[in-house]
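Final report, results section. Input specification for complex C-07:
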Amino acid sequence: MLTIHGMSDSGNCYKPRLLMALLGRPFRHVEVSSLDGGTKQPAFLAANPNGKVPLLELEDGCTLPESNAILCYLGDGTRFVPDDRFARAQMLGWMFFEQYSHEPQVAVRRSLLVYPQMRAAATPQRLADTLAGGHKALAVMEQRLSGAQWLVGDAPSLADIALYAYTHRAGEGGFELADYPGIRAWLARIEGLSDYRPISWLPGA
Amino acid sequence: MLTIHGMSDSGNCYKPRLLMALLGRPFRHVEVSSLDGGTKQPAFLAANPNGKVPLLELEDGCTLPESNAILCYLGDGTRFVPDDRFARAQMLGWMFFEQYSHEPQVAVRRSLLVYPQMRAAATPQRLADTLAGGHKALAVMEQRLSGAQWLVGDAPSLADIALYAYTHRAGEGGFELADYPGIRAWLARIEGLSDYRPISWLPGA
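Structure output:
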Protein backbone atom coordinates (compact mmCIF):
# COMPACT_ATOMS: atom_id res chain seq x y z
CA MET A 1 0.00 0.00 0.00
CA LEU A 2 1.18 3.54 -0.68
CA THR A 3 2.28 5.64 2.29
CA ILE A 4 1.92 9.41 2.53
CA HIS A 5 4.22 10.97 5.10
CA GLY A 6 2.75 14.29 6.08
CA MET A 7 1.50 16.79 8.58
CA SER A 8 -2.25 16.41 8.94
CA ASP A 9 -2.84 20.16 9.29
CA SER A 10 -0.83 21.13 6.17
CA GLY A 11 -2.59 22.01 2.93
CA ASN A 12 0.31 20.68 0.88
CA CYS A 13 -0.03 17.32 2.67
CA TYR A 14 -3.82 17.36 2.27
CA LYS A 15 -3.57 17.51 -1.53
CA PRO A 16 -2.55 13.84 -2.07
CA ARG A 17 -4.93 12.67 0.69
CA LEU A 18 -7.83 14.41 -1.05
CA LEU A 19 -6.89 12.94 -4.42
CA MET A 20 -6.64 9.42 -2.99
CA ALA A 21 -10.05 9.88 -1.35
CA LEU A 22 -11.60 11.11 -4.62
CA LEU A 23 -10.07 8.13 -6.42
CA GLY A 24 -11.28 5.72 -3.73
CA ARG A 25 -7.78 4.36 -3.28
CA PRO A 26 -6.50 3.11 0.11
CA PHE A 27 -3.25 4.47 1.57
CA ARG A 28 -1.39 4.73 4.85
CA HIS A 29 -0.80 8.07 6.59
CA VAL A 30 2.35 8.60 8.69
CA GLU A 31 2.37 11.84 10.66
CA VAL A 32 5.57 13.88 10.17
CA SER A 33 5.54 17.51 11.21
CA SER A 34 7.73 20.42 10.13
CA LEU A 35 6.81 22.19 13.37
CA ASP A 36 8.43 19.74 15.82
CA GLY A 37 11.61 18.99 13.84
CA GLY A 38 10.24 15.78 12.33
CA THR A 39 11.23 16.82 8.81
CA LYS A 40 14.82 17.51 9.94
CA GLN A 41 15.48 14.05 11.40
CA PRO A 42 18.32 12.15 9.65
CA ALA A 43 16.05 9.31 8.54
CA PHE A 44 13.60 11.75 6.97
CA LEU A 45 16.36 13.84 5.34
CA ALA A 46 17.79 10.67 3.81
CA ALA A 47 14.48 10.22 2.00
CA ASN A 48 14.00 13.92 1.20
CA PRO A 49 17.13 16.08 1.46
CA ASN A 50 14.93 19.17 1.12
CA GLY A 51 13.33 18.34 4.49
CA LYS A 52 9.72 18.91 3.50
CA VAL A 53 6.43 17.05 3.64
CA PRO A 54 4.48 15.53 2.02
CA LEU A 55 6.61 12.63 0.91
CA LEU A 56 5.11 9.70 -0.98
CA GLU A 57 6.56 6.25 -0.31
CA LEU A 58 5.85 3.49 -2.81
CA GLU A 59 5.49 -0.19 -1.99
CA ASP A 60 9.12 -0.77 -3.05
CA GLY A 61 10.42 1.95 -0.72
CA CYS A 62 11.08 4.55 -3.44
CA THR A 63 10.12 8.04 -2.30
CA LEU A 64 8.85 11.12 -4.11
CA PRO A 65 8.78 14.66 -2.66
CA GLU A 66 6.82 17.78 -3.71
CA SER A 67 3.05 17.80 -3.23
CA ASN A 68 2.22 18.69 -6.82
CA ALA A 69 4.61 16.10 -8.29
CA ILE A 70 2.95 13.53 -6.02
CA LEU A 71 -0.46 14.62 -7.39
CA CYS A 72 0.87 14.12 -10.94
CA TYR A 73 2.19 10.65 -10.10
CA LEU A 74 -1.00 9.52 -8.36
CA GLY A 75 -3.26 11.19 -10.89
CA ASP A 76 -1.52 9.85 -14.00
CA GLY A 77 -4.07 8.12 -16.21
CA THR A 78 -7.05 9.13 -14.06
CA ARG A 79 -10.00 11.46 -14.80
CA PHE A 80 -8.16 14.26 -12.97
CA VAL A 81 -5.58 14.66 -15.77
CA PRO A 82 -6.85 15.91 -19.14
CA ASP A 83 -6.10 13.82 -22.22
CA ASP A 84 -5.39 16.88 -24.33
CA ARG A 85 -1.73 17.96 -24.36
CA PHE A 86 -2.45 21.68 -24.13
CA ALA A 87 -5.02 21.24 -21.35
CA ARG A 88 -2.50 19.11 -19.46
CA ALA A 89 0.05 21.92 -19.73
CA GLN A 90 -2.56 24.44 -18.56
CA MET A 91 -3.19 22.22 -15.54
CA LEU A 92 0.54 22.20 -14.75
CA GLY A 93 0.60 25.97 -15.28
CA TRP A 94 -1.93 26.41 -12.48
CA MET A 95 0.05 24.02 -10.29
CA PHE A 96 3.27 26.00 -10.77
CA PHE A 97 1.27 29.18 -10.13
CA GLU A 98 0.09 27.57 -6.89
CA GLN A 99 3.62 26.91 -5.68
CA TYR A 100 5.14 30.20 -6.82
CA SER A 101 2.42 32.84 -6.56
CA HIS A 102 -0.23 31.43 -4.20
CA GLU A 103 1.21 29.15 -1.50
CA PRO A 104 4.07 31.49 -0.45
CA GLN A 105 1.45 34.18 0.17
CA VAL A 106 -1.90 32.62 1.11
CA ALA A 107 -0.52 29.60 3.00
CA VAL A 108 2.47 31.37 4.52
CA ARG A 109 0.30 34.19 5.90
CA ARG A 110 -1.95 31.59 7.53
CA SER A 111 1.06 29.85 9.08
CA LEU A 112 2.37 33.18 10.38
CA LEU A 113 -0.95 33.81 12.12
CA VAL A 114 -1.83 30.28 13.25
CA TYR A 115 1.38 28.61 14.45
CA PRO A 116 3.05 29.91 17.64
CA GLN A 117 6.39 28.68 16.23
CA MET A 118 6.07 31.23 13.41
CA ARG A 119 5.29 34.24 15.59
CA ALA A 120 8.79 35.75 15.43
CA ALA A 121 8.62 35.75 11.63
CA ALA A 122 5.22 37.46 11.59
CA THR A 123 6.52 41.01 11.24
CA PRO A 124 4.14 43.80 10.13
CA GLN A 125 6.04 44.02 6.83
CA ARG A 126 5.76 40.28 6.21
CA LEU A 127 2.04 40.30 7.03
CA ALA A 128 1.46 43.27 4.70
CA ASP A 129 3.49 41.73 1.87
CA THR A 130 1.74 38.35 2.06
CA LEU A 131 -1.68 40.03 2.30
CA ALA A 132 -1.04 41.95 -0.91
CA GLY A 133 0.54 38.95 -2.66
CA GLY A 134 -2.26 36.64 -1.59
CA HIS A 135 -4.98 38.94 -2.88
CA LYS A 136 -3.11 39.23 -6.17
CA ALA A 137 -3.10 35.43 -6.51
CA LEU A 138 -6.77 35.18 -5.52
CA ALA A 139 -7.66 37.82 -8.13
CA VAL A 140 -5.96 35.75 -10.83
CA MET A 141 -8.03 32.72 -9.79
CA GLU A 142 -11.22 34.80 -9.64
CA GLN A 143 -10.66 36.03 -13.19
CA ARG A 144 -10.83 32.41 -14.38
CA LEU A 145 -13.50 31.15 -11.97
CA SER A 146 -15.91 34.03 -12.48
CA GLY A 147 -16.56 32.59 -15.94
CA ALA A 148 -15.72 28.90 -15.61
CA GLN A 149 -16.60 26.01 -13.35
CA TRP A 150 -13.09 24.58 -13.13
CA LEU A 151 -9.55 25.92 -13.58
CA VAL A 152 -8.94 23.91 -16.77
CA GLY A 153 -11.53 22.77 -19.30
CA ASP A 154 -14.91 21.66 -18.00
CA ALA A 155 -13.96 19.05 -15.41
CA PRO A 156 -12.06 19.00 -12.13
CA SER A 157 -8.33 18.33 -12.50
CA LEU A 158 -5.25 18.13 -10.32
CA ALA A 159 -5.05 21.92 -10.60
CA ASP A 160 -8.32 22.31 -8.70
CA ILE A 161 -7.15 19.93 -5.98
CA ALA A 162 -3.79 21.73 -5.66
CA LEU A 163 -5.36 25.18 -5.37
CA TYR A 164 -8.25 24.08 -3.20
CA ALA A 165 -5.87 22.98 -0.43
CA TYR A 166 -4.91 26.44 0.80
CA THR A 167 -7.67 28.53 -0.80
CA HIS A 168 -10.38 26.90 1.32
CA ARG A 169 -8.48 27.96 4.47
CA ALA A 170 -7.55 31.43 3.25
CA GLY A 171 -9.82 32.93 5.91
CA GLU A 172 -7.44 31.71 8.62
CA GLY A 173 -4.75 33.76 6.87
CA GLY A 174 -6.90 36.87 7.03
CA PHE A 175 -8.14 36.71 3.44
CA GLU A 176 -11.79 37.69 3.19
CA LEU A 177 -13.37 35.84 0.25
CA ALA A 178 -16.51 38.01 0.03
CA ASP A 179 -15.11 39.77 -3.04
CA TYR A 180 -14.40 36.49 -4.82
CA PRO A 181 -17.79 34.95 -5.68
CA GLY A 182 -16.27 32.79 -8.41
CA ILE A 183 -13.82 31.27 -5.94
CA ARG A 184 -16.54 30.68 -3.35
CA ALA A 185 -18.76 28.86 -5.84
CA TRP A 186 -15.77 26.76 -6.96
CA LEU A 187 -14.91 25.81 -3.36
CA ALA A 188 -18.50 24.59 -2.91
CA ARG A 189 -18.28 22.68 -6.20
CA ILE A 190 -15.18 20.81 -5.00
CA GLU A 191 -16.80 20.08 -1.65
CA GLY A 192 -19.74 18.61 -3.55
CA LEU A 193 -17.62 16.07 -5.43
CA SER A 194 -18.42 12.45 -4.73
CA ASP A 195 -16.01 11.04 -2.08
CA TYR A 196 -14.74 14.50 -1.11
CA ARG A 197 -13.07 14.48 2.32
CA PRO A 198 -12.17 17.50 4.48
CA ILE A 199 -8.59 18.23 5.58
CA SER A 200 -9.31 16.75 9.03
CA TRP A 201 -9.97 13.34 7.51
CA LEU A 202 -7.32 10.63 7.79
CA PRO A 203 -7.59 7.11 6.36
CA GLY A 204 -9.05 4.61 8.77
CA ALA A 205 -10.88 7.36 10.64
CA MET B 1 5.45 29.19 -35.71
CA LEU B 2 5.46 29.26 -31.92
CA THR B 3 6.14 32.59 -30.19
CA ILE B 4 7.85 32.96 -26.82
CA HIS B 5 7.15 36.30 -25.17
CA GLY B 6 9.93 36.92 -22.71
CA MET B 7 12.69 39.01 -21.23
CA SER B 8 15.98 37.99 -22.82
CA ASP B 9 17.93 38.39 -19.55
CA SER B 10 15.53 36.27 -17.43
CA GLY B 11 16.41 32.68 -16.54
CA ASN B 12 12.75 31.70 -16.51
CA CYS B 13 12.41 32.99 -20.08
CA TYR B 14 15.66 31.30 -21.13
CA LYS B 15 14.32 27.84 -20.19
CA PRO B 16 11.96 27.42 -23.19
CA ARG B 17 14.51 29.07 -25.55
CA LEU B 18 17.17 26.56 -24.49
CA LEU B 19 14.76 23.63 -24.92
CA MET B 20 13.74 24.81 -28.41
CA ALA B 21 17.44 25.17 -29.33
CA LEU B 22 18.24 21.66 -28.04
CA LEU B 23 15.27 20.29 -30.01
CA GLY B 24 16.32 22.19 -33.14
CA ARG B 25 12.88 23.77 -33.40
CA PRO B 26 12.35 27.28 -34.82
CA PHE B 27 10.41 29.88 -32.85
CA ARG B 28 9.84 33.60 -32.67
CA HIS B 29 11.02 35.68 -29.70
CA VAL B 30 9.09 38.79 -28.64
CA GLU B 31 10.81 40.88 -25.99
CA VAL B 32 8.54 41.71 -23.01
CA SER B 33 10.17 42.93 -19.82
CA SER B 34 8.93 42.93 -16.25
CA LEU B 35 11.35 45.75 -15.47
CA ASP B 36 9.82 48.42 -17.74
CA GLY B 37 6.13 47.64 -17.12
CA GLY B 38 5.74 45.50 -20.23
CA THR B 39 4.15 42.65 -18.28
CA LYS B 40 1.58 45.04 -16.77
CA GLN B 41 0.23 46.37 -20.08
CA PRO B 42 -3.49 45.60 -20.62
CA ALA B 43 -2.82 43.53 -23.75
CA PHE B 44 -0.30 41.40 -21.93
CA LEU B 45 -2.50 41.01 -18.84
CA ALA B 46 -5.34 39.85 -21.06
CA ALA B 47 -3.13 36.95 -22.15
CA ASN B 48 -1.63 36.30 -18.69
CA PRO B 49 -3.57 37.82 -15.76
CA ASN B 50 -0.63 36.96 -13.48
CA GLY B 51 1.52 39.48 -15.38
CA LYS B 52 4.60 37.31 -15.78
CA VAL B 53 6.89 36.16 -18.55
CA PRO B 54 7.60 33.83 -20.24
CA LEU B 55 4.35 33.35 -22.08
CA LEU B 56 4.05 30.83 -24.91
CA GLU B 57 1.79 31.71 -27.83
CA LEU B 58 0.66 28.93 -30.14
CA GLU B 59 -0.06 29.28 -33.85
CA ASP B 60 -3.80 29.53 -33.07
CA GLY B 61 -3.28 32.36 -30.58
CA CYS B 62 -3.78 30.27 -27.44
CA THR B 63 -1.35 31.24 -24.69
CA LEU B 64 0.31 29.34 -21.86
CA PRO B 65 2.07 30.92 -18.85
CA GLU B 66 4.58 29.48 -16.34
CA SER B 67 8.07 28.61 -17.57
CA ASN B 68 8.01 25.02 -16.32
CA ALA B 69 4.53 24.31 -17.71
CA ILE B 70 5.80 25.66 -21.05
CA LEU B 71 8.76 23.26 -20.82
CA CYS B 72 6.32 20.37 -20.22
CA TYR B 73 4.20 21.37 -23.20
CA LEU B 74 7.15 21.79 -25.57
CA GLY B 75 8.99 18.75 -24.23
CA ASP B 76 6.01 16.37 -24.35
CA GLY B 77 6.98 13.27 -26.32
CA THR B 78 10.64 14.29 -26.71
CA ARG B 79 13.83 12.74 -25.27
CA PHE B 80 13.73 15.32 -22.47
CA VAL B 81 10.74 13.64 -20.77
CA PRO B 82 11.29 10.14 -19.34
CA ASP B 83 8.95 7.36 -20.48
CA ASP B 84 8.75 5.87 -17.00
CA ARG B 85 5.88 7.20 -14.89
CA PHE B 86 7.89 7.46 -11.66
CA ALA B 87 10.87 9.11 -13.38
CA ARG B 88 8.47 11.60 -14.97
CA ALA B 89 7.12 12.45 -11.51
CA GLN B 90 10.68 12.82 -10.19
CA MET B 91 11.36 15.26 -13.03
CA LEU B 92 8.30 17.28 -12.04
CA GLY B 93 9.44 17.10 -8.40
CA TRP B 94 12.69 18.87 -9.30
CA MET B 95 10.74 21.41 -11.36
CA PHE B 96 8.43 22.25 -8.42
CA PHE B 97 11.53 22.37 -6.18
CA GLU B 98 13.00 24.86 -8.66
CA GLN B 99 10.01 27.19 -8.44
CA TYR B 100 9.48 26.91 -4.68
CA SER B 101 12.90 26.40 -3.10
CA HIS B 102 15.47 27.55 -5.66
CA GLU B 103 14.23 30.41 -7.87
CA PRO B 104 12.83 32.57 -5.02
CA GLN B 105 16.28 32.45 -3.40
CA VAL B 106 18.98 32.03 -6.07
CA ALA B 107 17.28 34.04 -8.82
CA VAL B 108 15.73 36.64 -6.56
CA ARG B 109 19.06 37.38 -4.85
CA ARG B 110 20.62 37.89 -8.28
CA SER B 111 17.82 40.28 -9.27
CA LEU B 112 18.24 42.21 -6.02
CA LEU B 113 21.94 42.70 -6.78
CA VAL B 114 21.80 43.18 -10.55
CA TYR B 115 18.75 45.31 -11.36
CA PRO B 116 18.71 48.98 -10.25
CA GLN B 117 14.89 48.75 -10.12
CA MET B 118 15.23 46.20 -7.28
CA ARG B 119 17.62 48.20 -5.14
CA ALA B 120 15.01 49.39 -2.62
CA ALA B 121 14.00 45.79 -1.94
CA ALA B 122 17.61 44.68 -1.39
CA THR B 123 17.61 45.10 2.39
CA PRO B 124 20.36 43.41 4.46
CA GLN B 125 17.75 41.02 5.88
CA ARG B 126 16.48 40.06 2.42
CA LEU B 127 20.02 39.51 1.15
CA ALA B 128 20.89 37.36 4.19
CA ASP B 129 17.69 35.31 3.91
CA THR B 130 18.09 34.61 0.20
CA LEU B 131 21.78 33.76 0.66
CA ALA B 132 20.91 31.13 3.28
CA GLY B 133 17.93 29.83 1.30
CA GLY B 134 19.90 29.67 -1.92
CA HIS B 135 22.73 27.68 -0.37
CA LYS B 136 20.17 25.29 1.09
CA ALA B 137 18.72 24.68 -2.39
CA LEU B 138 22.17 24.29 -3.94
CA ALA B 139 23.10 21.75 -1.25
CA VAL B 140 20.03 19.67 -2.14
CA MET B 141 21.11 19.68 -5.80
CA GLU B 142 24.72 18.85 -4.86
CA GLN B 143 23.57 15.83 -2.88
CA ARG B 144 22.09 14.38 -6.07
CA LEU B 145 24.73 15.61 -8.52
CA SER B 146 27.74 14.50 -6.48
CA GLY B 147 26.74 10.95 -7.37
CA ALA B 148 24.80 11.28 -10.62
CA GLN B 149 25.24 12.88 -14.01
CA TRP B 150 21.69 14.20 -14.31
CA LEU B 151 18.91 15.10 -11.90
CA VAL B 152 16.68 12.20 -12.97
CA GLY B 153 17.81 8.85 -14.35
CA ASP B 154 20.80 8.79 -16.66
CA ALA B 155 19.83 11.34 -19.30
CA PRO B 156 19.13 15.08 -19.37
CA SER B 157 15.49 15.99 -18.80
CA LEU B 158 13.35 19.10 -18.46
CA ALA B 159 14.43 19.18 -14.80
CA ASP B 160 18.04 19.83 -15.81
CA ILE B 161 16.99 22.62 -18.19
CA ALA B 162 14.75 24.21 -15.54
CA LEU B 163 17.43 24.19 -12.86
CA TYR B 164 20.29 25.13 -15.19
CA ALA B 165 18.63 28.47 -15.99
CA TYR B 166 19.39 30.22 -12.71
CA THR B 167 22.07 27.90 -11.29
CA HIS B 168 24.52 28.80 -14.04
CA ARG B 169 24.20 32.48 -13.08
CA ALA B 170 24.24 31.93 -9.32
CA GLY B 171 27.58 33.73 -9.12
CA GLU B 172 25.86 37.00 -10.06
CA GLY B 173 23.69 36.48 -6.99
CA GLY B 174 26.75 36.10 -4.77
CA PHE B 175 26.67 32.30 -4.64
CA GLU B 176 30.19 30.87 -4.82
CA LEU B 177 30.00 27.42 -6.46
CA ALA B 178 33.50 26.27 -5.33
CA ASP B 179 31.95 24.02 -2.68
CA TYR B 180 29.61 22.37 -5.19
CA PRO B 181 31.81 20.26 -7.50
CA GLY B 182 28.88 18.08 -8.54
CA ILE B 183 26.91 21.12 -9.66
CA ARG B 184 29.89 22.56 -11.55
CA ALA B 185 30.46 19.31 -13.45
CA TRP B 186 26.73 19.16 -14.27
CA LEU B 187 26.72 22.75 -15.58
CA ALA B 188 29.62 21.83 -17.90
CA ARG B 189 27.75 18.70 -18.99
CA ILE B 190 24.71 20.77 -20.02
CA GLU B 191 26.92 23.27 -21.82
CA GLY B 192 28.41 20.34 -23.74
CA LEU B 193 25.07 19.15 -25.08
CA SER B 194 24.72 19.26 -28.85
CA ASP B 195 22.90 22.47 -29.93
CA TYR B 196 23.27 24.07 -26.47
CA ARG B 197 22.86 27.86 -26.66
CA PRO B 198 23.76 30.43 -23.97
CA ILE B 199 21.20 32.76 -22.41
CA SER B 200 22.36 35.62 -24.65
CA TRP B 201 21.27 33.70 -27.76
CA LEU B 202 18.08 34.70 -29.52
CA PRO B 203 16.64 33.01 -32.62
CA GLY B 204 17.78 34.57 -35.85
CA ALA B 205 20.96 35.86 -34.23
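DSSP finds seven helices and four strands in chain A. Chain A touches chain B at residues 49-50, 58, 62, 64-70, 72-73, 76, 85-86, 88-90, 92-93, 95-97, 99-101, 103-104, 139-140, 143-144 (CB under 8 Å). This concludes the modelling results for the funded period.
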